[in-house]
Specification:
Helix content: over 70%
Radius of gyration: 21 Å
Number of domains: 1
CATH architecture: Up-down Bundle
Shape: globular
Strand content: under 5%
Number of helices: 18
Largest sheet: 2 strands, antiparallel
Structural class: mainly alpha
Strand order of the largest sheet: 1-4
CATH superfamily: MFS general substrate transporter like domains
CATH class: Mainly Alpha
Length: 431
C-alpha cells in the first residue's frame, strides 16, 4: 500500500474564545496537572511503606505501581470515548470525583489494614486520573496554535512535576513519620503483628482525607468554570470513502509504544530510589533520609520542563526528545557502573532529562489527528500502563540479580525513545 506524507495543515483543531479566555482556561487546567502529579508521586512513598508493613519483596511491593498503572490500560480508551460523548470539561469533572472516591477508600483500607483494599483504592484513584489525562492533555495541545502545542504541554507538565516534587516531601513527612524500627514484622505474634500494621497503616488516613476534600473543591471549580469551546474539524472526505482509523497512523501507534516505555522507565526509577539509596554500597541512608532525596528527581523534571517549554519554541520536538533520551540512558549506565555519591546523583539527574519526554511524545503522537484526537489521546494514555508492567519486571529482576543491576530495563526504554524522536514520530499514513 502506498505511503504518503501528511501536510501539517491537513487536520487541525480550533477553539472559539479570546486570547484572554485561552490563558485563563490554560491556568485552570494547569491545576489539574499539579494534582495528578502530586497523587502519582505519593506512590513512591507508599511502596517502601507497604513493603515494610506487609513484609514484601521488591516484586510484591511493585504491585502498588502495577495496580495504579493498570487502570490506564483498563480506562484509557473508554475515557477517550467519554470525551467524545460528554466533552472535555465534564470528563475532567468526572475524573476528579472518581479520584475523590479512590482517596476515601484509603481510610477503610488503613483501618483493616488490607493490602488488596489499598490496591483497590489505587485503581479507583488512577481511573479518575486516567479520565483527567485523556481530557486535559489534548485540550492543552489544541488550546492555541498547533506549532506551539508541545511547548504548552511542557509548561503544564512542569506544574505536574511541581506536584511530584511536593508530593514526596509531604507524603514522606506525614506517612513515614514515627516509623517503626521493627525489622521483621512477620516474627511478631499474630496480635502484635496486627497492632503493628494497624499503627503503621493509620498514617495514610489524614493525608488522603485531605486529598479527597481538595479534589471535591477542585471538581466543583472546574464544573462551574466557563471554558472556551473547542471544535474539532469534521472528516470532509467524500461519502462512501472508508472512515479513517487511528490504527492507520504509524506515528500514533509507535507513540503509544514510546509512552509505554517512557512511563515505565520514569516510574521504575522513581519507585526504586528509596530502596536503592538505602543500600549500604549506594547511599547507606535510612528510608526517611532516602525519601527526602526523591523530590530531587522530580524537581529536575520540573526545571527541565520549564526550560524545555522555551527551548521547544526554537528546536524541533523530535530532535530534543532524542537528545534527552540518549543523555538519560547514559546517566543510568553511569549509576549502574558506580557506587556511592556518583551512583546516587547520576540516577537523580535522570529526572532533568526525563522532563520533556512525556509531553513531547504525546504531542507528536496526536499531531494532525483532527477528529481522531480524542481516540488517539485515549490510546496514548492507555499506554501509560507501562508504569505498571515495567516496574514489576524490574522488581522481579531486582529480586534475582540485585537492585543495582536491575536498571538495565530503563536503559532499553530510553534507547527506543531516542528512535521515536528521530524516525518513529514521522507522520506517514496509508493513502
Amino acid at each position: 500500500m502506498a505511503i504518503t506524507n501528511v501536510s501539517s495543515s491537513a487536520k487541525v483543531a480550533t477553539g472559539t474564545g479570546s486570547g484572554a479566555s485561552y490563558r485563563s482556561a490554560f491556568a485552570m487546567v494547569t491545576t489539574l496537572f499539579f494534582m495528578w502529579g502530586f497523587l502519582t508521586s505519593l506512590n513512591d512513598i507508599l511502596i517502601p511503606h507497604f513493603k515494610h508493613i506487609f513484609d514484601q519483596n521488591y516484586a510484591q511491593a511493585m504491585l502498588v505501581q502495577f495496580a495504579f498503572f493498570c487502570a490506564y490500560a483498563a480506562f484509557g480508551v473508554p475515557s477517550g470515548k467519554v470525551v467524545e460523548w460528554i466533552g472535555y470539561q465534564r470528563t475532567m469533572v468526572a475524573g476528579l470525583f472518581t479520584m475523590c472516591l479512590g482517596a476515601l477508600i484509603f481510610i477503610p483500607a488503613a483501618s483493616v489494614p488490607s493490602f488488596p483494599l489499598f490496591l483497590t483504592a489505587l485503581i479507583v484513584l488512577a481511573a479518575g486520573i486516567t479520565a483527567l489525562q485523556v481530557a486535559a492533555n489534548p485540550y492543552v495541545s489544541i488550546l492555541g496554535p498547533p506549532q506551539t502545542a508541545s511547548s504548552r504541554l511542557n509548561l503544564t507538565q512542569a506544574f505536574n512535576s511541581l506536584g511530584t516534587v511536593i508530593g514526596p516531601l509531604i507524603g514522606g513527612y506525614l506517612i513515614l513519620r514515627g516509623y517503626s524500627n521493627v525489622e521483621n514484622p512477620e516474627s511478631l505474634s499474630p496480635e502484635a503483628l496486627h497492632a503493628f500494621r494497624l499503627q503503621e497503616a493509620s498514617t495514610v488516613k489524614l493525608p488522603y482525607l485531605a486529598i479527597a476534600v481538595a479534589l471535591v473543591i477542585l471538581g466543583l471549580a472546574i464544573a462551574l468554570y466557563k471554558f472556551p469551546r473547542i471544535d474539532t474539524t469534521k472528516d470532509y472526505r467524500p461519502i462512501g470513502e472508508k472512515k479513517d482509523s487511528m490504527w492507520r497512523h504509524r506515528h500514533v501507534v509507535l507513540g503509544a509504544v514510546a509512552i509505554f516505555v517512557y512511563v515505565g522507565a520514569e516510574v521504575s526509577i522513581g519507585s526504586f530510589l528509596i530502596n536503592y539509596f538505602n543500600q549500604p554500597n549506594i547511599g547507606g541512608l535510612t528510608l526517611q533520609a532516602a525519601a527526602r532525596l526523591v523530590p530531587v528527581y522530580w524537581f529536575g523534571a520540573m526545571i527541565g520542563r520549564f526550560i524545555g517549554s522555551a527551548v521547544l519554541q526554537k528546536v524541533r520536538t523530535g530532535t530534543l526528545l532524542s537528545f534527552n533520551a540518549i543523555i538519560a540512558c547514559a546517566l543510568v549506565v553511569i549509576s549502574m557502573l558506580s557506587f556511592g555519591h556518583v551512583a546516587v546523583w547520576s540516577i537523580l539527574l535522570v529526572g532533568l532529562f526525563n522532563s520533556i519526554m512525556f509531553p513531547s511524545i504525546f504531542t507528536l503522537g496526536i499531531a494532525e489527528m483532527g477528529p481522531l484526537t480524542g481516540e488517539a489521546s485515549g490510546l496514548l494514555v492507555t499506554a501509560i500502563v507501562g508504569g505498571a508492567l515495567i516496574p514489576l519486571a524490574q522488581g522481579v529482576i531486582a529480586d534475582h540479580i540485585g537492585i543495582h543491576h536491575a536498571f538495565i530495563l530503563p536503559i532499553l526504554c530510553y534507547l527506543y525513545i531516542a528512535y521515536y524522536g528521530v524516525r518513529g514520530s514521522r507522520i506517514i499514513m496509508p493513502a
